[in-house]
Amino acid sequence: MDFLVYEFMQRALVAGLLAGIICAVVSLFVIVQRMAFATVGISHSALGGIAIGVLGGLNPVLCAAFFCTLVAWGIGLVSKKGNLHEDTVIGVFFSTTMALGVTLISLAKGYYPELFSYLFGNILAVTSQDLSLLGIGGTIILLFLGLFFKELLFLCFDSDVARVSGIPVTPLYFALLTAIALTVVISVKILGIVLASALLTIPAITGLELTRNFRGVLAVAIATGVVSSLVGLWLSYALNLPSGATIVLCAAMIFFASFVFSPRRKWVVRSKK
Amino acid sequence: MITPLKYTDIVRSAKKTTHGKGHNNSLRNYAALGEMVGIHSSARVLELQNVSIQLGRRTVINNLNLVVRQGDFLGVIGPNGAGKTTLMRLILGLIKPSQGMVRLFGASPSAPGDHRHMVGYLPQKQRFDDRFPVSALDVVMMGRIGCIGLLRWPSREDRKAALSTLCRVGFNKEDANRPIGELSGGQQQLVFLARALCSHTRLLVLDEPTAALDLTAQNRFYRIVKELQNDLGLTVIIVSHDLPVVAGYADRLLCLDGYSYIVGTPREVLASRQVARAYGRQIAQIFN
Questions:
Q1: Pairwise CA distance, residues B238 & A42, whole Å
Q2: In whole angstroms, what is the distance from residue A96 CA to residue A77 CA?
Q3: Do A150 and B154 touch (CB under 8 A)?
Q4: What are the start-end ranges of the H helices in chain B?
């Protein structure tokens, strides 16, 4: 535990813990609403927001948060109003915003090393300001999901019947998109644009492998998010590996273990017999 | 001229009855609401005046006039593309008419208000993921969310009411905690029926509810719906392609045929030219 004497490691540990919990809770809705590809699209669109922030001298994280929220709403609006499949719309937004980001970066004069830290993430570079943003943003997201949990679950299960029952489906859907976009930005700082969607999908899928009850899925997802963040951070320190990639690999290992030991498949029980 | 009914008063009185003592919301208590509404046994639950719906350039429903009263069992029939599901979506407030007026319990179906908690809906297709992590009881509980309200958690009584509704539709108590994806098609349909009943339901809207069920499950489903209609004084509107069965249970039939319609007793409607035109010789073959 000698690595905890360093202040940057302490900050990284808190960031990993917070991100693990927030991403795990959000991942439940990402999976049941079948929005795994949306998180990939939104995380890649963060490049556009970060490029605007870096080039304009603004806070890149806040710019990315604003930009990702707009993209998430755009995906929701175009797919609902245009009666288009969500995956198709995500594909369009994904490539367009990436192209915008690349164009803006190419227009910039000079070298911006921080852009690479956003591309691949660096939990060890988390500042006190980042930690405050993570804390405030995470609290708002968890409060929203906690307060409207039953309505969001109903919306994800059957939006038409939820609407007939008097649930404000459209505002809640866009609020959920906002929560997902903000969570993506939170994980971009830690895992990077390329891997950010991992913590928004793997925890809940792991939960679904082990249990079929949403309370159980939530518990397993939080455990997966927290364990993979902390173990990944420690391994990256001990073996001198990139932190974001190590965290994702840890989460993937937990998922594959749950896949093999899943009571649904009963592979392990069968092989023992 | 239509005089809007003050159903909000009825709901308020019923809420006093069902929530007053220890928030006891069992299905039996909804009978109290039924009795109250029963006072207005001729009350208009649904009224459509000169309603037309256009989807793109196509007229799906043309100048439809219809009144459904408390306790009616209305079967909606017609060939594919005749506008049956569109009519259901209109009644539920999911779409608005291009022309004409719709009144559900005296109010606009899409307007917010207590009247929305009096409608139970069972859609044609349940497009949920089989791995969705909810139990049968959780699904029935969803039916109560509208009347529990935002920022409030379901109470123990809400859970009891959901379980009692689930048992009322003939579902085994032991299976209540089983994941919804593990149930058979017939069991799932009973769960969705229980969800539709779990609010302050006075009108049950069923859109081809037995399309994916075998004959035994179909008959069982219709028998349960008919029993519920008789016991609780429910109004039922059901869309079905199964003409002999729906004609056997419904008091009235509405046959939609794209541009025209006919409404009357099953005998009148099935003998009409419109039905013969809509279904061709099939109708004679079915009833012979």
A1: 42
A2: 16
A3: yes
A4: 7-20, 27-39, 84-91, 136-148, 156-168, 185-197, 215-232, 243-249, 266-270, 273-279, 282-287
Q: Measured between beta carbons, which residues in chain A are less than 8 angstroms from residue B132?
A: 32, 156-157
The DSSP H or E segment spanning A46 is: helix A36-56
Residue of B nearest to A210 (CA): B133
Read off the pLDDT band of A106 (50, 70, 90).
confident
Set of chain A residues whose Cβ sits within 8 Å of the Cβ of B11:
none
Size of chain B in residues: 288
Q: Is B65 helix (H, G, I), strand (E, B) or coil?
A: strand
Domain harbouring A168, CATH code: 1.10.3470.10
Yes or no, beta carbons of A166 and B116 under 8 Å apart: yes
Q: Which CATH code is given to the segment(s) B7-128+202-287?
A: 3.40.50.300
User: In the block, which residue shows the tokens 């963040």?
Assistant: A229
Chain A interface includes B145 (CB < 8 A): yes
How many domains is chain A partitioned into structurally?
A: 1
CA B152 to chain centre: 26
Contact: B128, A158; criterion CB under 8 Å:
yes
Assigned domain for A268 exists: no
Contacts of B143 in chain A (CB under 8 A): 165
Who among B93, B133, B145 is closest to A167 (CB)?
A: B145
CA distance B143 to chain A (A): 7
Pair B36, B13: CB distance under 8 Å: yes
Q: Closest Cα to residue B218, out of B226, A18, B111?
A: B226
Please report the ipTM that was assigned to this predicted complex: 0.85
Q: Which two tokens stand for residue A91?
A: 């594909």
Confidence of residue B42 (pLDDT cuts 50, 70, 90): low
Comparing C-alpha atoms, which of B223, B170, B231 is closest to residue B31? B231
Q: Is residue A261 part of a domain?
A: no
For residue A50, give its domain range: 2-194
**Which comes out higher in pLDDT, residue A5 or A226?**
A226
